[in-house]
Design a protein that fits this description.
Oligomer: heterodimer
CATH class of chain A: Mainly Beta
Largest sheet of chain A: 6 strands, antiparallel
CATH architecture of chain A: Beta Barrel
Number of strands of chain B: 20
Distance between the termini of chain A: 17 Å
Largest sheet of chain B: 7 strands, mixed
Largest interface: A-B, 13 and 17 residues
Helix content of chain A: 10-25%
Structural class of chain B: alpha+beta
Strand order of the largest sheet of chain B: 10-11-12-13-9-3-14
Number of helices of chain A: 3
Strand content of chain A: 25-35%
Order of helices and strands of chain A: EEEHEEEEEHEH
Structural class of chain A: alpha+beta
Radius of gyration of chain A: 14 Å
């Protein structure tokens, strides 16, 4: 079971309210879809500049594996206030610590609300239905 | 596993780049049973086929194989195929996703000729062994046929894992030496396992579609649906070696259109390579300054060249090797260098 301290997007991002910002990453399912269990197959992750404003559903970056490129979509509207500096040179952190050190960006929203996203159980169902 | 043309296909068994290296350095085993396999028999098989495909079937020596295409009247490609000329038949290997359309097209244009067309896709399995140790691996399970007597793009028949009369051809889609074999699909698991075992001493690995795509791209080979399709002509794709305008072949579907394009082509399929971080991917715009001059057809990370590579159609003015262009990545630019195809040729 995935952590229930956060919410999930149907496009396989996760979001977690942490202090005055929202941490955003991608799920184990997304990582596995990109690299079929071979974490070395992740090759590049394009993340936004700090200060960029993103809208809900907007593409804020891309992640690329040997075989495919996938868009990263913002789960909430707000300003990117921090980008995980580790990811650029250590993509394996996404697989090694998906729910912790594998966060990608922090987005600050006026009144962060993740109710539009799925909880862990609903996300599980979403994946099961799609496959 | 992914769904592909109605088949469940392995994209990768392990890391894709390791699979590519395994084929370049050792030997790899591919399950290609999704490819379409068609057999034509009957007195008119050769003359009738010569009116439909770009290859001069009548000039293919028995037991030899040629690459060719099936084109529309306007020269757009419906499929690219391998044509095996047998003693009493012609055997075609076509793309999985085009098989049904090919069969319908062939039936329509063979009507009235003394030809019977048999779709053997389901009854025959197709495996490929590719890489320098493919001769040694395959010979372990083949009796009564010395594989070294089969030249490049030639085929023979032998007893494989006890199965008589198995079609074995020295063909492939990787740029390496290797074989493709066709046999009773009910035996595929047994033959697969026997080949895995025979190749173990050479470091053989099973290779998925992901690595196969990189291998063929490094070797400069077109993939239907990417470099070639209904709206692209095989002349500008650099496939003239598979097209015969010989007067003895007579007229064939697409001949006039392709002859015109050959006389004055406007675009060319080229390789592009980059030392930048991003790999070219299908659909990325190719730019020269502010002008979009083309679009990426295929792209990959090439472990053999240690570069990111791709293909694109560009106007002739940009087709010279060494020309600097760029690809657009959602507003960011990355430099590309136009490169002659293929990127990779094995030393013979």
């Amino acid at each position: 079971m995935r952590p229930d301290d956060r919410r999930y997007a149907t496009t396989h991002e996760w979001a977690k309210i942490d202090g005055d910002s929202v941490m955003v990453g991608i799920t184990d399912f997304a990582i596995n879809e990109l690299c079929n269990g071979n974490e070395g197959d992740l090759v590049y992750c394009d993340l936004p500049e700090v200060g960029r404003m993103v809208e809900i559903g907007e593409t804020f970056g891309e992640i690329e594996s040997v075989k495919a490129v996938s868009d990263l979509q913002a789960p909430i509207t707000g300003e990117v206030v921090e980008v995980n500096p580790v990811i650029e040179d250590h993509l394996q952190v996404l697989a090694e610590d998906t729910w912790g050190k594998g966060w990608m960006v922090r987005i600050r929203a006026k009144a962060p609300n993740l109710d539009h996203m799925l909880d862990a159980a609903a996300y599980e169902e979403h994946i099961a239905a799609a496959h | 596993m992914v769904e592909f043309g109605g088949w469940h296909m392995p994209v990768q068994y392990g890391p894709i780049l390791d699979e590519v290296r395994c084929v370049r350095e050792k030997v790899g085993l591919f399950d290609l049973s999704h490819m379409g396999r068609l057999r034509l028999t009957g007195a008119d098989r050769i003359s009738a086929l010569d009116k439909i495909v770009t290859t001069f079937v009548g000039r293919i020596p028995v037991d030899s194989i040629r690459y060719g295409l099936i084109c529309q009247e306007d020269g757009g490609a419906l499929d690219d195929i391998l044509v095996y000329r047998g003693e009493e038949d012609v055997f075609l290997v076509v793309n999985a996703s085009n098989t049904e359309r090919d069969v319908a097209w062939l039936k329509e244009h063979l009507a009235g000729a003394n030809v019977s067309l048999e779709d053997q896709t389901e009854e025959l399995a197709m495996l490929a062994l590719q890489g320098q140790d493919s001769v040694a691996t395959l010979q372990t399970v083949v009796e009564d046929l010395d594989l070294l007597t089969i030249g490049y793009y030639k085929s023979g028949f032998g007893t494989l894992c006890g199965l008589p009369n198995v079609r074995v051809s020295r063909t492939g889609y990787t740029g390496e030496d290797g074989f493709e074999i066709y046999f009773d699909s009910g035996e595929s698991e047994r033959v697969w396992n026997a080949l895995m075992e025979a190749g173990a001493q050479y470091g053989l690995k099973p290779i998925g579609l992901g690595a196969r795509d990189t291998l063929r791209l490094e070797a400069g080979m077109s993939l239907y649906g990417h470099e070639i399709n209904e709206t692209r002509n095989p002349i500008e794709a650099g496939l003239s070696f598979g097209i015969s305008f010989h007067e003895d072949k007579g007229d064939w579907i697409g001949r006039d259109a392709l002859a015109q394009i050959k006389a004055s082509p406007t675009n060319k399929l080229v390789g592009v390579s980059t030392d930048g971080k991003r790999a070219p991917r299908e659909g990325y715009p190719v730019m020269s300054g502010d002008e979009q001059i083309g679009v990426i057809c295929s792209g990959a990370i090439s472990p053999t060249l240690s570069k990111n590579i791709g293909t694109a159609y560009v106007p002739l003015a940009f087709s010279e090797a060494g020309t600097k262009v760029q690809m657009d990545l959602r507003g960011k630019r990355q430099d590309l260098t136009v490169t002659d195809l293929p990127f990779y040729s094995r030393k013979r």
